[in-house]
Write a structure and sequence with these properties.
Strand content: 5-15%
CATH class: Alpha Beta
Largest sheet: 5 strands, parallel
CATH architecture: Alpha-Beta Barrel
Distance between the termini: 19 Å
CATH topology: TIM Barrel
Number of domains: 1
Helix content: 25-40%
Shape: globular
Number of helices: 11
Radius of gyration: 19 Å
Length: about 325
């Protein structure tokens, strides 16, 4: 963070008076679902200069690398079980289905051919009268195949049981947090030892409790379990990444606003026990480090000029990230 002037060394550089403001690295949303240019523009307006797509039935690879838009990295089609929600309800292609461990290599090869940046596995819960989810052996096989070609693996996990399965499978990043019970501290310490990171998506978990996508909400479901899990992860030293699960998909359990929701997520992370500085790092340097984005996440010579200028001091009051005075993506002013 820098307090003062923004400038470069070229003779025709623009000089921006930043007196009384704080300059931050552009924010990174570590869990989105993007389909359009307009959605990427919305991120830019809110100071979110990079987004990590965690699954799209129609992978928008053509939106990557466009000047003045949030930089997009993505997973493309997610891995799911036969008759899983992704293919039965959300329009994902048949190639998303993984028919056991022997099919893992094919799935990963298909995604690499699609030009993805990371792999996403949907680890659904085993529920009565519902399709059987991916088994642990299949998840482990997908992880092994992805790691063999140097690709990071993210796993959708929403219960302590699915967290444990993803940990045993060797996943790199877990998305979401349990709603029925807080994560055990022993599991969190294993995650720390194994180097796993978590994207809690508290803004989505909170909305799921408030607007449960079914006629009857199970009694054990409570937002406090997700919030408490963040505290457990922080105390164990697990890397926490800011992400929202932002989407405009009518088939999703809930929609979340693109761009603005990341500021809500930062506030919820602070409410769950992170310091404002830790929350900022979760949306900048830590996410960049975990996903190998070595040219962003900090303000440093030679890095991308992804910048957010805000009034107030967000290391004291995280709400200051909303007081936006200017945004630059790759050096181009977008707000």
């Amino acid at each position: 963070m820098v307090d003062g002037l923004i400038a470069t060394h070229s003779d025709d550089a623009q000089v921006v008076d930043g007196h009384g403001a704080v300059l931050l690295p552009g924010l990174i949303d570590a869990h989105v679902h993007v389909e359009t240019v307009q959605q990427l523009q919305a991120y830019g307006r809110w100071g979110v200069t990079s987004v990590l797509d965690m699954g799209s039935p129609d992978w928008a690879a053509a939106l990557r690398g466009r000047a003045g838009l949030a930089d997009l990295r993505g997973a493309g089609a997610v891995a799911c079980a036969p008759r899983g929600r992704a293919v039965s309800k959300m329009g994902y292609p048949s190639s998303s289905v993984v028919h056991g461990p022997s099919d893992a290599r094919r799935f990963v090869a298909d995604r690499i051919a699609d030009g993805v940046d990371h792999i996403k596995i949907v680890l659904e819960e085993r529920l009565p009268f519902k399709p059987k989810p991916l088994d642990e052996a299949t998840v482990s096989a997908i992880v092994a195949e992805a790691h063999a070609v140097g690709v990071l693996v993210c796993v959708h996990a929403t219960s302590t049981r699915s967290f444990q399965a993803a940990i045993r499978a060797g996943a790199d990043v877990l998305t979401h947090t349990p709603l029925t019970a807080a994560l055990d501290e022993t599991d969190a310490l294993v995650m720390k030892h194994e180097g796993l990171a978590v994207v809690p998506t508290l803004v989505m978990m909170k909305k799921l409790v408030e607007r449960f996508p079914a006629p009857v909400k199970p009694k054990r479901i409570a937002y406090a379990n997700s919030s408490d899990t963040v505290g457990v992860l922080r105390r164990a030293g697990v890397k926490i990444l800011a992400g929202t699960d932002a989407n405009s998909d009518p088939t999703a359990p809930n929609t979340i606003e693109h761009g603005a929701a990341l500021h809500d997520e930062l506030q919820l992370l602070v409410d769950a026990g992170l310091t404002p500085a830790e929350a900022l790092t979760s949306a900048t340097a830590t996410t960049a480090e975990v996903f190998g984005l070595s040219d962003r996440g900090r303000i440093r010579q030679g890095y991308r000029a992804d910048l957010l200028l805000v009034d107030g001091d967000p290391t004291v009051d995280i709400a200051a990230t909303r007081e936006i005075r200017g945004v630059w993506i790759g050096g181009q002013e977008v707000r």
